[in-house]
Task: structure prediction
Amino acid sequence: MTTHLDPKKTALLSLHMVNDIASPNGKFGPMFSEQVVARHVIEKSKALLAYGRNQGFTIVHVAVRFQPEHTDLVTNSPLLTIVKDLDALVEGTWGADFVEDLYPIDGESIVTHQRVGAFQDSSLNQVLQQAGIEHIVLFGVVTNNIVEHTARNGVDYGYYVTVVEDCCSAPTLDIHNASIENMRLVADIKSLAEIQA
Result:
């Protein structure tokens, strides 16, 4: 599937590019940062954001954040239990803030959520609908969680979905590659260079 990216109908979604997840010093750093660094995900994502802004895409930054003491966290999965155990992703902390190189600028939307997927119990679909979006372009950490979940939910919500493969990473390269292969039936898989071409 190859779909032209019409700037008026395309949104670029930055998924979970917050310090606790994507930075070596974050609470999830030991789990995720090796591949973020090895795959140059921050640098490539910065270039992708710059391209999207230059093209006039709608830009949406999605962050998972919780209240102090995680009073709004439902620990019904191993991953969400780890969030609580690590005291991670607390609203107002450095860990829950966006990575400096990928920080939102004026006019860009920020969507905060507390579930595994970006659409569940969040304002994401409303933000996209109000902007007239038909196609979402995804990147972020981690591939096999927020990226894949959002890709599948995005298709169910009626959006065309593209995943920028080299602007994503997972705990290991094998997990990343497996997730990308899983998404080929629901999303167009592209590299940064292909998006920029």
Remarks:
- The CA atoms of residues 32 and 171 lie 5 Å apart.
- DSSP finds eight helices and six strands in the chain.
- The chain has a mean pLDDT of 96.
